[in-house]
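Everyone, study these two lines:
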Amino acid sequence: MKKAYRIKRNEEFQYVMQEGNSFANRQLVIYFVENNAQHHFRIGLSVGKKLGNAVTRNQIKRYLRQAFLELEDKIKPTVNIVIIARQPTVHMDFHQIKKSLAHLLYKTRLFND
């Protein structure tokens, strides 16, 4: 995932979380807001310290980035997305995380028609 497609600044995270819509399942929480001025979706990832040490948190973020990369052509390009990982993601492998993320994107109608 290119760095230009990531949300990094705290102000951007706060804007998406306060102004956007949210949806959740047991593993992930998604916040999203439309931004028609951009040509590619942007993502921000949040994995709290309660989920484990740095190795575990970074692994979860790598899995989420790879899942977004594989689902890239299906996701609407005019949206900013923030994903927050919950405790069950610690015990999940890549395919389970990808399936959970795809479920959230489908339920929030962020997939292209």
